[in-house]
Automatic annotation (TrEMBL):
<keyword id="KW-0804">Transcription</keyword>
<dbReference type="GO" id="GO:0003677">
    <property type="term" value="F:DNA binding"/>
</dbReference>
<keyword id="KW-0805">Transcription regulation</keyword>
<protein>
    <submittedName>
        <fullName>GntR family transcriptional regulator</fullName>
    </submittedName>
</protein>
<dbReference type="Pfam" id="PF00392">
    <property type="entry name" value="GntR"/>
</dbReference>
<dbReference type="InterPro" id="IPR000524">
    <property type="entry name" value="Tscrpt_reg_HTH_GntR"/>
</dbReference>
<dbReference type="InterPro" id="IPR036390">
    <property type="entry name" value="WH_DNA-bd_sf"/>
</dbReference>
<feature type="domain" description="HTH gntR-type">
    <location>
        <begin position="11"/>
        <end position="79"/>
    </location>
</feature>
<dbReference type="GO" id="GO:0003700">
    <property type="term" value="F:DNA-binding transcription factor activity"/>
</dbReference>
<dbReference type="InterPro" id="IPR036388">
    <property type="entry name" value="WH-like_DNA-bd_sf"/>
</dbReference>
<keyword id="KW-0238">DNA-binding</keyword>
Length: 123
């Protein structure tokens, strides 16, 4: 398996597939011009329905991240890293605002973010 899917996550599987592919592109493990695994192959590797992978690929294609090559599969086009960073910061802002509304303090939020960084450095 070339990336991990968390079947217990609240994040839909197709979204996890999209996020993983984008991360692999950003990390340089998938480069523009390279083919991603076929829908059937990836579905089998990670143990999900073909339609789940097809949905992820269709959305990635609509976003311009991959492109269908007739009779050959999907090829990486690339990602706009600045757009991804801006989207992530927007999500973070909404999450922090939600945390503040439920009564979490700045210190509690900061401690949690430090934990996330620590866990990310280890994994």
């Amino acid at each position: 398996m070339w990336f991990y899917i968390d079947f217990h996550s609240h994040v839909p599987i197709y979204q996890q597939i999209k996020d993983n592919i984008k991360s692999l592109i950003i990390a340089g493990k998938l480069r523009p011009g390279e083919f991603v695994p076929s829908i059937r192959s990836l579905a089998q590797d990670i143990g999900v329905n073909l339609n789940t992978v097809a949905r992820a690929y269709k959305e990635l294609e609509a976003e311009g991240v991959i492109r269908a090559e007739r009779g050959e599969g999907y090829v990486v086009v690339g990602v706009n890293v600045e757009d991804l960073k801006n989207q992530a910061l927007d999500e973070l802002r909404k999450t922090v605002e939600k945390c503040l509304k439920v009564g979490l303090s700045f210190q509690e939020i900061q401690n949690y973010i430090q934990e996330v960084f620590k866990d990310g450095a280890q994994g």
